[in-house]
Design brief:
Layout: H1 6-15, E1 19-23, H2 27-40, E2 44-49, H3 50-55, H4 59-72, E3 79-84, H5 88-97, E4 101-104, H6 111-127, E5 131-136, E6 141-143, E7 146-148, H7 155-162, E8 168-171, H8 189-199, E9 204-206, H9 214-222, E10 225-230, H10 232-247, H11 259-262, H12 264-281
Parallel strand pairs: 1-2, 1-10, 2-3, 4-5, 5-8, 8-9, 9-10
Antiparallel strand pairs: 6-7
The structure holds 1,3-dihydroxyacetonephosphate.
Length: 288
């Protein structure tokens, strides 16, 4: 059931758990995530970066595929189709394409411009029943060409942006996209605590979910994080399972080269990772 993320995140915040955003890259990714969410009766958010949207030939292709697959698989749990780290133009493109949720990442603008553009996009999204995520501070690292040094968010600026009526707020708290370096200092819970004190019941978003230790994930949820984004980890387990299949020579046995066989171990690995994350985030059984 395709819906905006508003209701599922409100419930997550009240219930002290988090909904996972899993980024999609193709049909296998989408199918694996939808089937796992349905099996575990968990709400889920499918994230689409501009780069992944382009790879899949455009946001309208993605929206058409997700809508059709949601119906043909008989998915009953709430699913939000969400733009990840969108530019101003990406947001309008996704609204037109039929996404149910958008993220405007105005974190690289100065706060005045971020507020101005976010305000406009909140009106557009809400008029059409979509949810919207905004960002303050920077998430470090690189994701699909979007690079940031990473910078902790200012709690006062978080409050300003939260007060614009966004449905979820991403705030930099020392998190980064991709693998964490060995000398990473961990999440800045002091900053998160201050942000939550200023923003109250606003669902907070933790980007860079790959590689954050379980105890830090749990602590972040206890301090108001209601949405956690995972992308790289699904890519890593997919690649590892596919490599094992090929290295074992399975693609050379019988019709092992058939893409339905070749991509199956990777797809199963994504399912296992999504299941593990949903259990950790506490969203299992929270579909209603
Ligand atoms: P990872 O790739 O580090 O899991 O981050 C995902 C993310 O934050 C998507 O916006």
């Amino acid at each position: 059931m395709l819906v905006s993320a508003t209701e599922m995140l409100k419930k997550a915040k009240e219930g002290h758990y988090a909904v996972g955003q899993f980024n999609i890259n193709n049909l296998e990714w989408t199918k694996a995530i939808l089937l796992t969410a349905e099996e575990l009766k968990s709400p889920v958010i499918l994230g689409v970066s501009a780069g992944a949207g382009k790879y899949m030939t455009g946001f309208s292709t993605v929206a058409a595929m997700v809508k059709a697959m949601d119906e043909s698989l008989g998915i009953t749990v709430p699913v939000a189709l969400h733009l990840d780290h969108g530019t101003y133009d990406n947001c309008y493109d996704c609204v037109k394409a039929g996404f149910t949720s958008i993220m405007f990442d105005g974190s690289h603008y100065d706060i005045e411009e971020n507020v101005e553009k976010t305000t406009e996009l909140v009106h557009v999204a809400h008029k059409l029943g979509l949810s919207i995520e905004a960002e303050v501070g920077g998430i470090g690292g690189e994701e699909d060409g979007v690079v940031s040094a990473g910078e902790c968010a200012d709690p006062e600026e978080c409050k300003r942006v939260a007060d614009l009526g966004v449905d979820m707020l991403a705030a930099g708290i020392g998190n980064i996209h991709g693998k964490y370096p060995a000398d990473w200092a961990g999440l800045r819970f002091d900053v998160l605590d201050n942000i939550q004190a200023k923003t109250g019941m606003m669902p907070l978003v933790l980007h860079g979910g790959t590689g954050i230790p379980d105890d830090q994930i749990k602590k972040a949820i206890s301090l108001g994080v209601s949405k956690i984004n995972v992308n790289t980890e699904c890519q890593l387990v997919f690649a590892e399972a596919t490599r094992k299949y090929v290295e074992a020579g399975k693609d050379l046995e019988g019709k092992g080269f058939d893409p339905r066989k070749l991509l199956a171990p990777g797809t199963e690995a994504i399912k296992a990772t999504v299941k593990e994350k949903m259990e950790l985030f506490g969203s299992v059984g929270k579909a209603n």
